[in-house]
Design brief:
Blueprint: E1 11-19, H1 25-35, H2 46-51, E2 59-65, E3 68-77, H3 81-91, E4 96-97, E5 100-111, H4 112-129, H5 137-150, E6 154-156, E7 161-163, E8 170-174, H6 177-185, E9 191-193, H7 201-209, E10 211-216, H8 220-232, E11 237-240, H9 252-259, E12 263-264, H10 265-271, H11 284-291, H12 300-313, E13 318-322, E14 328-333, H13 337-343, E15 350-353, E16 356-357, H14 359-367, E17 372-374, E18 377-378, E19 386-388
Parallel strand pairs: 8-9, 8-10, 10-11, 15-17, 16-18, 17-19
Antiparallel strand pairs: 1-3, 1-5, 2-3, 4-5, 6-7, 11-12, 13-14, 13-15
């Protein structure tokens, strides 16, 4: 009897049988060959297929229980799917095995090659892990780039602070050397480290000359560094790593994304209810402009002037921006007021608009320090700005 090479097996037919009587394995195999003969034509004659090596050795496992015999049949084939399913269906037509009535039912047809593929993949993984001295070309390239970047780390001042290129107008201040290396790896070269939590004198001096961004870890220690450094140096922007992460742990993408989220020092302190420290290099005029919070008191004459401006603006679809002395700064389309407020250099104290004031306009007006808004209607009144309808 021919046997199919295990390499050429494609499918395995699994079938269960039950017979009324005591049987032996040759009875089952004989029934399979004998009772399927001529069913599917000469091309699918099972004896011939086995001689050609297209069907392998039929395996039978049986168990006798009282007067019944049950068992499982396994038939390996090197045929295609359709031919294999025809063979499986033919086996189910067998009604007698030896002298006994019997019933055969195919349970499944297994794709043996799928099991082989799984084995190949798992084995390949293990072999890959065992490869010694193999390095990906991209990894080599990254190592060379990292090496060249790290070799560019310099030392600044008497305190020998680790830094990159600090010749520009903007600098990023971090805690230590590892943070400096990580930022340089990410392509951020304008960085300098403090070599600890204590603020060096060199950075105090740099803060008077350059725009400084303080980049700290996302933990309690980072917040303490912010308080200490901003009390003793002129820091312009604050940048905090994600909660629980240190700057030296951040991936390059995370560093670049965080740099876009830096916030002015005043915004940081106002959000965290800390006292604002004004940088010494700012002029008194700029300081007064930033911290000015007083309301504008309108006289009867001012109200009449505003009423006149509002009446003349009616139907124009425009918004007029005024300073605290009611002098016109500029007029813009009411629809583009939000953008205009963000872009204008001179911030308005009073806005007169032809139309309805929305919550979005009020938010933008609050951001620029506007004190009074004059309009026909207001979508909301939840604001500290004085709202007038003249």
């Amino acid at each position: 009897m021919a046997k199919v090479s295990p390499v050429s097996i494609k499918y395995m037919i699994h079938a269960d049988f039950i017979a009324e009587g005591a049987l032996e394995k040759p009875d089952v195999i004989g029934a399979i060959f004998g009772q399927t003969e001529g069913l599917l034509g000469a091309e699918l004659e099972m004896r011939e297929l086995q001689k050609e090596g297209k069907i392998g050795r039929i395996e039978v496992d049986l168990e006798r229980n009282d007067k019944k015999t049950t068992g499982r049949i396994k038939i390996p084939t090197a045929l295609d799917q359709s031919e294999t399913t025809l063979i499986a269906a033919a086996i189910e037509t067998i009604e007698r095995i030896g002298p006994s009535d019997a019933q055969i039912e195919v349970q499944k047809i297994e794709d043996v090659r799928g099991s082989k593929r799984d084995y190949i993949i798992e084995r390949a993984k293990k072999l890959m892990m065992g490869i010694e001295g193999s390095t990906d070309s991209r990894e080599i390239s990254n190592q060379i780039k990292d090496s060249s970047r790290i070799s560019g780390i310099k030392e600044y001042g008497d305190e020998k602070l680790p830094c990159g290129d600090i010749s520009g107008e903007e600098l990023i201040v971090v805690e230590g050397r590892a943070d400096v290396i990580n930022l340089i790896r990410a392509g951020v070269n304008n960085v300098i480290g403090m070599n600890g939590t204590k603020l060096p004198d060199a950075i105090k001096k740099l803060s008077k000359e350059k725009t400084l961004t303080l980049f700290v870890d996302g933990d309690r220690g980072g917040k303490l560094i912010i308080q200490n450094v901003t009390d003793n140096a002129d820091i312009d922007y604050i940048l905090v790593a994600p909660d629980g992460k240190e700057v030296e742990e951040l991936a390059s993408k995370e560093i670049l994304m965080n740099l876009r989220k830096k916030i002015p020092i005043r915004d940081y302190f106002s959000r965290n209810n800390f006292q604002i420290r004004v940088p010494e290099r700012e002029t008194r005029k700029e300081v007064e402009k930033e911290i000015e919070t007083g309301e504008i008191e309108l006289s009867d004459e001012d109200k009449e002037k505003l009423k006149k401006i509002s009446h003349e603006n009616e139907g124009s679809g425009k918004a007029i921006l005024l300073d605290k002395n009611l002098n016109e700064i500029k007029n813009v389309s009411a629809r583009s007021l939000n953008n205009a407020l963000r872009r204008t250099d001179k911030k308005p104290s009073i806005i007169v608009i032809d139309g309805t004031i929305t919550s979005g306009i009020i938010e933008s007006a609050e951001e620029v320090g506007c004190k009074i808004i004059v309009a026909k209607n207001f979508a909301t009144t939840n604001t500290k700005i004085k709202l007038l309808s003249l």
